Amino acid sequence: MKKDIQVFDNVLQLIGKTPLIKLNKMTKGFEGDFFAKVEAFNPGHSSKDRIALHIIEEAERKGILSPGDTIIETTSGNTGFSIAMVSIIKGYECILAVSSKSSADKIDMLKSMGAQVYVCPANVKADDPRSYYQVAKRLHNEIKGSVYINQYFNELNLDAHYHSTGPEIWEQTEGQITHLVACSGTGGTISGISKYLKEQNSNVKVIGVDAYGSVLKKYHETREFDDKEIYPYRIEGLGKNLIPTATDFDLIDKFIKVTDEESAHTAREISRTEGLFVGYTSGAAMQALKQLNEEGEFKKGDKVVVVFPDHGSRYMSKVYSDKWMEDQGFFDSNSEVAEKIQYIK
What we know:
By secondary structure, the chain is an alpha/beta fold. The chain is built from eleven helices and ten strands.
């Protein structure tokens, strides 16, 4: 009798069920046990695969999307890649408005996935017609048969993680999780996971990671939007210069801010110590974990999950480039760049 071939019908069936991996060297001496939810194991190498598939399939279910339609989105890169991947499998055109802060690697990847890419200036206000938010809206209005995903203001962003990432973390920790640490950009990841976890145990503490130059932390604390908080920063996919409705601030217990420089060094450190080749945003999440530990946030017996949302391959021209790090002033006089490449002549 022939056995069935062990095969997936397409790449989309690989989305989700990412592993929880214990952090060992990075958390040596910390109080508690620490685990990384490594979203780079998704086929599109980031947590954004989850929202791309969920939002597009919901649009199909509601009859909003039809074969041959165009999907439009704003992205710092990872969401765009995921949408492009889903569009290929499902037969949609894909147009992406991308922040100029996105790495060249990300932009090249989006083009290689068949997307039409519009690169928009990063350091303009959200209501500026050149901003990637406004460019995406304009294209949506101009192109007949288009759907604008609008992840920053789409409740399905949160919904995707409520139905997938949250339950996975709860099951993987057997309900023992005490803290969740996750970066907040659109806020869908942290809000969706938090909603699920707090329904299971209201005592789970949820900590958001924000960037200096972003408005999220102050808004969480005061419920006031302060544009004086806004200035250029380098971390992609973290923080915002507007308030996304995809973020449920009531589900987040507190925010902590991290710097561009420390987050970049920490991303590189994760690769060197834990063997996990993660991206800039993952470095920011781990940097937050370090700072929280220094503040005495954790105690013996705590089970802490940190979300690593991205893969290092998206940042080869940035945090994993010694030249880029040097150009940003991230290698000071006390830093030594070990030369790992030797050319034999």
